[in-house]
Amino acid sequence: VFSMPKGTPAEKVHASVRKFATEKFALQHRYAMALHTDQGHPHVHVVVKAVSEQGERLNIRKATLREWRQDFARYLRELGVEANATERAVRGEIRPQKATSIHRAMMRGASTLWRERAQSVARELASGGPRPEPGRERLVNTRRDVCRGWNAMAQLLDEQGHRELATVVRRFVERMPPPRTERQWIADQLEARVRAQQLDERQPTR
Q1: Which 3 state secondary structure label does DSSP give 145?
Q2: Distances (CA, A) of 118 to 46, 121, 184, 186
Q3: In terms of Cα–Cα distance, which of 22, 135, 50 is closest to 89?
Q4: Pick the residue with more confidence: 10 or 101?
Q5: Mean per-residue pLDDT for 32-48?
Q6: Is the predicted pLDDT of residue 91 greater than 60, yes or no?
Q7: What is the mean pLDDT of residues 124-128?
């Protein structure tokens, strides 16, 4: 899914994705694409046949996705749309990212995978709290590196006399939510629901 914020010209998003698909898949992999504007922000779904016409399988790695985001942003800029391909960690995003089908099922409460994970975390909470996760340390280290980068940028802006912009950068870093693994995020959601339910139960009935 190639998505841009509300207000971005849908025709330019579509044109950028069309150019991207032509550059990456034409004469190699069969693909189909569709523009959607029904959710407030323009986005294009692209479905690609994994096996090429030459019998080679499409191998998508993290580096591949990073390159694709950069190319998509470049095509948008060529059409006059301001766009940058920044990593989620650099933007301070911590919410677990799900495949589109899982995300939609989760939003309507029909995701079996999500329900099983939530039940697993609930059992851990009932027995004293979530168990330690190896990925937690990696998240913390990534966040530390990201903050160092932003703070170095703020210092450079200060040295160049851009104090207001430096303040904005530092405020952005300060407001980043703490890094959380998927299970920690689920635990926080469950605990928030319990607190909300307890609050409702305390409300006097009429």
Answers
A1: helix
A2: 30, 5, 10, 6
A3: 135
A4: 10
A5: 85
A6: no
A7: 75
Distance separating alpha carbons of residues 180 and 130, to the nearest angstrom = 12
* pLDDT at 99 exceeding the cut of 50: no
- Token pair, residue 150, equals 């932003």
Task: Classify residue 31 as exposed, middle or buried by CB count within 10 Å of its CB (0-12, 13-18, 19+).
Answer: middle
Tokens of 31: 């693909």
Burial profile 69-86: b = 16 or more Cβ within 10 angstroms, e = fewer: bebbbebbeeeebebeee
Q: What distance in Å separates the CA atoms of residue 93 and residue 99, rounded to the nearest whole number? A: 16
Average pLDDT (153-163) is 85
Please determine, for residue 3, whether its predicted confidence score (pLDDT) is greater than 90. Answer: no
**pTM greater than 0.85 (yes/no):** no
CA separation for the pair 175, 91 (Å, rounded): 11
Angle between helices 112-126 and 100-107 (to 10 degrees): 60
Section 160-170 average pLDDT: 86
Please give the C-alpha separations between residue 133 and each of 14, 62, 177, 183, in angstroms, as whole numbers.
40, 22, 19, 9
CB–CB of 191/165 below 8 Å? no
CA distance 76 to 4: 10
On whether the CB atoms of residues 110 and 146 are closer than 8 A, the answer is no
Residue type, 81: V
